[in-house]
């Protein structure tokens, strides 16, 4: 079998078509890795600098009523995670910054894609795109003739006559092709790993572990494609038929299924229009909804007076305004949780439609896992958005608490820099690898099924392959 | 043997091929799916536009009602939202939403309409940062992948089908040994290939155009005949380019397998690799400036402005004497001071934005040069532009909204500076946004260069095919 591996390997390397394709794919891979890395790094530096400036603005806002400071608020900038240079995922389509202010949860604004052109939308190329689309194509081109071609030329009969088993022959061919591909992919993986170690573009929980799992995911994907191509090559009557079928698989996998998933997910789980969403929040903020009602100022005053046994609000040991503001804040939070929570949940359900369609297109499972591990999927955007919102709520609690405790109703009260400095800065901890994989059980299962199914299919087809 | 008999013969042969019938049936299903998606999306936008316009009417009516009540002696509902105050009537409460109707052919090309905002609330506080909006609520994942619309089918799938039907249009005859027989008739190879391809083109382009016209009919796009014509012309030119490319490759007298490899390779390079490579190259050579710095700049401008309000007012009045009627410079009202600060922030924002926009325009101009390398990019550009969902129409809308915001300020700011109150009598004179939508001629002018280049690519491939086919002999 060693001979077969070596022969296939040298055959592939000698093939001028492979050499050109491999050079093209390799160049695109390296360039996209390098470009992604440089871009992620400068974006992360810029975001970190902007975050520091925002903190600076917050601390140097001078003497102010804490509620004025709450209205002034602070901006949060989404960090670029370490592995985002491999797969930028949905990052161009999510906002990069959010204003955290009193009374309302704002949307993330400034989507990089809005600044780009329509042409840039159809042809974004990241390392992940090369791995998901072009490498499988290369595998197909290398494999479609592996058995069908030998059969057509009549050399399959000769080979088998030498006493080698069919399975050995097929495994040998697969290993030879894999070896040739490894010449392309291993250096790229090493470059990626080196980039991660030498100059990690941004923070992430356990970037190396994520990187290793990411490599495993792509390895599983390529193995599945190789096995599938081999199965078709063993089954098809001619090399040409094998190629046509495999190209059809490639088109459905990479072009048709992903887009079908988009519209299907929207039909199954429709999102409200931006106008409807905004009006809903506005209406519920104005008059409450279901069991969530606006805090009643008069009732609050009475309750406070009774609690402290005084007659006038001026005699209360707390500033009634601060207490009321915090109650309004908590009322608003419940409205935001309701509306934004429902919207995020719809996005998540739409994501499940994409994941489920991986049954016909393994790319969808790989894409989901790849973005998840790179930290650039919708769920991790939500993770950061939730962290930023939690920070906003804490900030408001501190401001209202200071107002309530350190002043009396009716006072003119100004807080100083100590209060601004006491407020901790936003520190974001990216989710752990376990969290990411736990969310992605479906994709892991589907990809695993594809891998096992393709290998079994290849084994079955090779066993039954006709000789001539 | 005439062209007609070739056509008739081809029809019989194609229809006898079961696999082909299935593929064509599948293509028809995909066309319908794509069209349905587009129509649903267009209807969704139309409903939103209607709701926005109703909102405008309702806001004005609410203001009129409250102003009438106040005239009859009622107290304003809130001291801070007294509709007589010009910064309330011209502020968020009385704001007017400027809206862009969906492009006439949105059902065929979603284009940028799922990403870019198509309505803006305009009031006296509208400034450059008001244009930083997210647009429609949409899952970022869906935005990333893009829609399955007719444009996607035309750009990506149609060429594949064209190639599948034509890669062996001549090589098969030779491989089956029928070429010598065919060419022994009084007909040239050119005529034979042309007739065969014409038949296939009629079939495929006919299907796409039928789907397009159906979509246009359902959504009422025939009101813009220029756009419809441009759409159809682009589809035809783009599809013919691929047919002619197949003819050219066939004329090289190689095997069907070789033809298939080369044509699939050409598709891959022109449709997938080149657009992506162009984007990487343009990102490397001409990186887009980032908006993040704008957030910081805006913040700094407003911090500064709040601290220097009186000084800013004096400068404002110097710069805008036309707005100054009635302002007592020694004793300016709070509204006037606040306005001076607002205006200072706006002007600083305009500086930052115009710098950014200039760099962005430069980058885009450079990137646009490379699109001539890929017929797919050229076709996409013209198709979505014809549909009214391209970048240009949104940019035009935005600049009209900018002008409208200026008009709005001119109406309300003098009253703010003079601390005047307004009443219901001014309501009919409050500016209303009226979009001057681009004409078919504007679109055609923009499409001129890309469509010409696409046509030139078609002619180039056609000449290659013509010359090559002229050399084909029955004895090959």
Give an overview in words.
The complex is a heterodimer of chains A (468) and B (476). Chain A is mainly alpha-helical. Helices cover 72% and strands 2% of the residues of chain A. Chain A has helices at residues 2-14, 16-59, 66-72, 112-115, 118-122, 127-143, 148-153, 155-161, 166-198, 207-235, 239-268, 274-287, 297-308, 320-356, 362-374, 378-406, 417-422, 433-439, 441-464, and strands spanning 74-77, 97-100. In chain A, strands 1-2 form a two-stranded antiparallel sheet. In chain A, helix 2 runs parallel beside helix 9. Chain B has 476 residues and is mainly alpha-helical. The longest helix of chain B is centred in the N-terminal third of the chain and has 54 residues, at 18-71. Chain B starts with a helix and ends in a 6-residue tail after the last helix. Chains A and B meet through helix 2, helix 4, helix 5, helix 6 and helix 11 of A and helix 2, helix 4, helix 5, helix 10 and helix 11 of B.
Task: Record the SSE blueprint.
The complex is a heterodimer of chains A (468) and B (476).
Chain A: H1 2-14, H2 16-59, H3 66-72, E1 74-77, E2 97-100, H4 112-115, H5 118-122, H6 127-143, H7 148-153, H8 155-161, H9 166-198, H10 207-235, H11 239-268, H12 274-287, H13 297-308, H14 320-356, H15 362-374, H16 378-406, H17 417-422, H18 433-439, H19 441-464
Antiparallel strand pairs in A: 1-2
Chain B: H1 3-16, H2 18-71, H3 86-89, E1 96-99, E2 119-122, H4 140-145, H5 150-166, H6 171-176, H7 179-184, H8 189-219, H9 225-250, H10 256-285, H11 292-307, H12 309-319, H13 334-370, H14 375-387, H15 391-417, H16 440-470
Antiparallel strand pairs in B: 1-2
Helix pairs in contact in B: 1-8, 2-5, 2-8, 5-8, 5-9, 5-10, 8-9, 9-10, 9-14, 9-16, 11-13, 12-13, 14-16
């Amino acid at each position: 079998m060693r001979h077969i591996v070596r022969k296939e390997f040298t055959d592939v390397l000698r093939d001028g078509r492979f050499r050109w394709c491999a050079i093209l794919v390799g160049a695109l891979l390296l360039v996209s890795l390098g470009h992604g890395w440089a871009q992620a790094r400068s974006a992360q530096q810029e975001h970190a600098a902007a975050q520091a400036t925002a903190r600076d603005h917050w601390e140097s806002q001078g003497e102010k009523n804490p509620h004025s400071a709450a209205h002034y608020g602070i901006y949060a900038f989404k960090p670029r995670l370490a592995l985002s240079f491999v797969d930028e995922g949905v990052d161009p389509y999510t906002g990069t910054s959010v204003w955290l202010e009193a009374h309302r949860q704002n949307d993330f604004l400034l989507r990089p894609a809005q600044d780009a052109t329509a042409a840039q939308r159809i042809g974004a190329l990241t390392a992940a795109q090369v791995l998901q689309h072009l490498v499988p194509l290369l595998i197909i081109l290398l494999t479609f003739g592996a058995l069908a071609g030998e059969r057509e030329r009549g050399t399959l009969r000769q080979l088998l006559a030498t006493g080698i088993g069919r399975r050995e022959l097929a495994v040998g061919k697969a290993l030879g092709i894999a070896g040739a591909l490894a010449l392309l992919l291993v250096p790229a993986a090493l470059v990626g790993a080196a980039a991660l170690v030498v100059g990690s573009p941004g923070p992430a929980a356990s970037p190396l572990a994520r990187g290793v799992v990411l490599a495993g995911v792509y390895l599983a994907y390529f193995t599945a494609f190789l096995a599938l191509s081999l199965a078709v090559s063993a089954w098809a009557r001619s090399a040409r038929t094998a190629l046509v079928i495999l190209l059809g698989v490639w088109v459905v996998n990479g072009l048709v299924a992903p887009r079908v998933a988009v519209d299907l997910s929207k039909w199954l789980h429709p999102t409200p229009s931006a106008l409807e969403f905004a009006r809903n929040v506005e209406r519920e903020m104005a008059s409450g909804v279901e069991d969530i009602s606006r805090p009643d100022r008069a009732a609050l005053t009475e309750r406070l007076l009774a609690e402290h046994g005084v007659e006038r609000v001026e005699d209360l040991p707390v500033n009634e305004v601060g207490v009321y503001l915090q109650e309004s804040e908590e009322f608003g939070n419940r409205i935001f949780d309701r509306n934004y929570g429902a919207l995020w949940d719809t996005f998540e359900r739409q994501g499940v439609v994409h994941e489920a369609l991986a049954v016909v297109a393994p790319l969808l499972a790989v894409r989901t896992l790849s973005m998840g591990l790179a930290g650039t999927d919708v769920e991790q955007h939500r993770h950061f958005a939730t962290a930023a919102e939690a920070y906003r709520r804490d900030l408001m609690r501190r401001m209202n608490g200071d107002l309530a405790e350190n002043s009396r109703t009716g006072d003119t009260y100004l807080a100083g820099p100590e209060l601004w400095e006491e407020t901790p800065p936003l520190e974001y901890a990216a989710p752990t690898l376990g969290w990411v994989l736990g969310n992605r059980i479906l994709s892991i299962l589907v990809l695993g099924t594809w891998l096992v199914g393709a290998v079994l299919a290849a084994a079955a087809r090779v066993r039954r392959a006709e000789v001539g | 043997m005439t062209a007609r008999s070739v056509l008739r013969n081809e029809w019989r042969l194609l229809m006898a091929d079961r696999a082909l019938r299935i593929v064509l049936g599948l293509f028809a299903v995909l066309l319908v799916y794509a069209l349905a998606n587009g129509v649903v999306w267009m209807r969704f936008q139309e409903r939103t536009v209607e709701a926005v316009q109703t909102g405008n009417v309702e806001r004005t009516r609410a203001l009129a009602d409250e102003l009438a009540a106040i005239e009859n002696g009622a107290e304003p509902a809130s001291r801070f939202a007294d509709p007589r105050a010009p910064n309330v009537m011209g502020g968020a409460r009385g704001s007017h939403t400027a809206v862009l109707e969906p492009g006439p052919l949105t059902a065929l090309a979603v284009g940028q309409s799922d990403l870019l905002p198509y309505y803006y609330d305009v009031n006296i506080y509208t400034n450059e940062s008001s244009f930083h909006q997210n647009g429609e609520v949409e899952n970022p994942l869906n935005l990333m992948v893009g829609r399955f619309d007719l444009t996607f089918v035309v750009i990506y799938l149609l060429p594949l089908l064209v190639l599948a039907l034509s890669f062996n249009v001549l090589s098969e005859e030779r491989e089956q040994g029928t070429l010598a027989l065919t060419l022994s008739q009084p007909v040239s190879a050119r005529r034979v290939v042309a007739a065969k391809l014409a038949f296939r083109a009629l079939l495929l382009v006919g299907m796409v155009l039928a789907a397009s016209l159906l979509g246009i009919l359902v959504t009422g796009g025939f009101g813009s005949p220029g756009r419809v014509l441009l759409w159809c012309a682009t589809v035809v030119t783009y599809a013919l380019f691929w047919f002619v490319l197949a003819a050219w490759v066939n004329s090289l007298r190689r095997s069907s397998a070789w033809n298939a490899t080369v044509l699939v390779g050409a598709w891959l390079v022109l449709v997938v690799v080149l657009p992506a490579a162009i984007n990487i190259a343009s990102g490397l050579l001409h990186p887009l400036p980032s908006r993040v710095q704008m957030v910081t700049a805006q913040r700094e401008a407003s911090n500064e402005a709040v601290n220097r309000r009186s000084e800013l007012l004096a400068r404002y009045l110097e710069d805008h004497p036309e707005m100054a009627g009635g302002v007592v410079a020694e004793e300016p009202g709070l509204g006037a001071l606040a306005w001076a600060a607002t205006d200072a922030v706006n002007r600083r924002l305009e500086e930052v934005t115009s710098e950014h926009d200039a760099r962005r325009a430069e980058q885009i101009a450079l990137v646009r040069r490379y699109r001539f390398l890929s017929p797919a990019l050229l076709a996409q550009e013209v198709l979505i532009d014809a549909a009214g969902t391209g970048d240009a129409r949104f940019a035009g809308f935005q600049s009209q909204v900018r002008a409208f915001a200026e008009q709005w300020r001119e109406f309300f700011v003098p009253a703010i500076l003079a601390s005047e109150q307004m009443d219901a009598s001014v309501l009919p004179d409050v500016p209303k946004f009226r979009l001057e939508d681009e004409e078919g001629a504007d679109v055609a002018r923009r499409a001129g260069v890309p469509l010409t280049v696409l046509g030139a690519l078609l002619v180039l491939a056609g000449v290659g095919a013509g010359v090559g086919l002229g050399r084909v002999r029955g004895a090959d």
